[in-house]
Specification:
Layout lengths: L2 H39 L4 H13 L7 H11 L9 H12 L13 H5 L6 E6 L2 E4 L10 H5 L5 E6 L9 E4 L5 H5 L4 E4 L6 H6 L6 E8 L5 E10 L13 E4 L11 E2 L5 E2 L17 H13 L6 E8 L5 E7 L6 H6 L12 H8 L1
Antiparallel strand pairs: 1-2, 1-5, 3-4, 3-5, 6-7, 6-11, 7-8, 9-10, 11-12
Helix pairs in contact: 1-3, 2-3
Length: 357
């Protein structure tokens, strides 16, 4: 066998191993959630499971995508065509629609250069051991503390390639040493957001995060496709994926659903720490946030789907905390407010991916 043929077979074998690994990870997560949901709402019927399996095979190309479809059906109470499973999104949609360029959204030190918007709360950057201001001009090491704490007694540091709240450090003026800062990895320093009173009432100790998911349509126009509000717990100084509460948002009105969900997807009607009900709460400046994110996405058409993490300050101004096109999971929005991505042709993408293997 020619060397080129051997290399091709090795490559294909490696791809199959990677595919099976991702399927296994998603199957484990989906099955764990399904057990919890069924424990509260009753077992999913065999007919519904068959619908999920048939749809996964016939429409999405493999019955291995069925586990997330079963989770969605268990939570919503019935099967709905058009859902996008989490593993299908990761393995098929993201490579096709976002590709390698999606990595730039995880490079937080580059976000201001790419988006060029005053909505970012960035103060300074640390890149390759050198401090830079918001304009990317070099800042003297001895002056960086004065810059960081010029307006605030504390600031946030977020390293590049971090997400889900991992790696965030809270820096306080009185406890920050220059030697410590210089040892940090590349990342961005951001000022805290003094959030709107409506959001502060829900979660006073951490900034409530509005997740907006925008997608580029077949004709190129960008639209909001899903939204939910992420709330921290009493012990959290910022929202953490492991403990967050998520509340679906009606994308046409910006009003919260009357029920939110704990990390294990148990439904609740109020925040367990503040006891504030979710019912009829409207997100301040919701349409303003939607307009801004759609405009920014429209100006960055290389990406097909972006998750935006938004804060709303006390003056109802929008603050973009992060954007993500590499790890922006859609499983929660699909299970609650989905199917959110109808009409985009995503269910056909697996055929192209299969031909390219």
């Amino acid at each position: 066998m020619a060397l080129a043929g051997i290399k091709q077979r090795v490559k294909q074998a490696a791809q199959r191993i990677q595919i099976e690994r991702i399927h296994a990870q998603h199957r484990k997560m989906a099955n764990a959630l399904l057990v919890r949901i069924e424990g509260r709402k009753g077992a999913l019927s065999s007919d519904t499971k068959q619908q999920a399996t048939t749809y996964a095979h016939d429409v999405l190309g493999s019955r291995k995508y069925a586990p997330w479809l079963e989770v969605y059906a268990a939570l919503s109470g019935n099967f709905v065509e058009g859902w996008i499973p989490g593993d299908y999104y990761q393995m098929i949609v993201l490579p096709a629609k976002n590709g390698p360029i999606s990595q730039v959204t995880n490079t937080k030190t580059l976000t201001h250069r790419l988006l060029n918007t005053p909505a970012l709360p960035d103060i300074a950057y640390l890149i390759d051991g050198i401090f830079y201001g918001r304009d990317y001009a070099v800042v003297d090491r001895l002056k960086i503390a004065d810059l960081l704490f010029a307006k605030d007694e504390r600031v946030f540091f977020k390293p590049d390639r971090s997400f889900q709240g991992k790696g965030i450090r809270i820096l306080e003026r009185t406890a920050t040493r220059l030697d410590d800062l210089a040892a940090y990895p590349d990342g961005v320093f951001q000022r805290p957001i003094i959030q709107h009173g409506v959001l502060s009432a829900l979660t006073p100790n951490s900034t409530a995060t509005l997740r907006l998911t925008t997608a580029k349509g077949v004709g190129g126009n960008v639209e909001l496709r899903a939204a939910d509000l992420r709330l921290g717990r009493q012990q959290d100084s910022f929202v953490r994926a492991a403990s967050e509460i998520r509340v679906p948002v009606d994308i046409s009105t910006g009003v919260l659903w009357p029920q939110g969900y704990l990390p294990d997807w148990q439904a609740i009607e109020s925040h367990p720490d503040t006891c504030v009900s979710f019912k009829e709460i409207a997100i301040p400046s919701f349409q303003k946030a939607v307009k801004l994110c759609c405009q920014l996405h429209q100006g960055f058409p290389h990406l097909g789907c972006i998750g935006w993490d938004i804060g709303v300050d006390q003056h109802e101004e929008i603050k973009i905390m992060e954007w993500n096109a590499k790890h922006n999971s859609i499983v929660f929005s699909e299970a609650t407010t989905g199917p959110s991505f109808l009409g985009l042709g995503w269910e056909e993408l697996w055929k192209q991916a299969y031909r390219n293997r």
